[in-house]
Amino acid sequence: MKVSPRITADEVRRVLSYSLETGVFVWRQRMSNAVRAGTVAGSDHQGYVRINIRGQRVFAHVLAVLYVTGEWPSAEVDHRDTNRANNRWENLRIADAFSNAQNQRRPHSNNTVGLLGVRRNHKGYQARITVGGKRLCLGTRADAEQAFALYVDAKRQLHPGNTL
What we know:
164 residues; alpha+beta; GCC-box Binding Domain; 2 domains; 3-stranded antiparallel sheet; 23% helix
């Protein structure tokens, strides 16, 4: 199997234009019968915008970093507002996996309590949060909503800009 060389920033800028304000990519030139100059680039892939360049499918938020900085991102590209389709430059940030996970707004599907940051234990409901890869116990309360309030307070302090 032949591996294509990685797409360059110059190549992306030659075939696409990117709006910092809207986060939308538009084709600068006709790429095929289906892809005409002046049309919005990309298609939906699980809520993300994905663009096909030279047979390589690349997420638009990753291409935005390449387009603006001239370099492939050194880590994950995170959507601050958690909207996968919002590729406005001000909404994107380079983040490690821990920082990216701070955007979580809903509990995992296996959370039986149904509240983010809260789990049931033998004493009641325990509030927990992860900071810098370390899980911190915030306390246990008899009521799940009280434990969730502990979590929300801690999240506002420890994960600024990523509040619920």
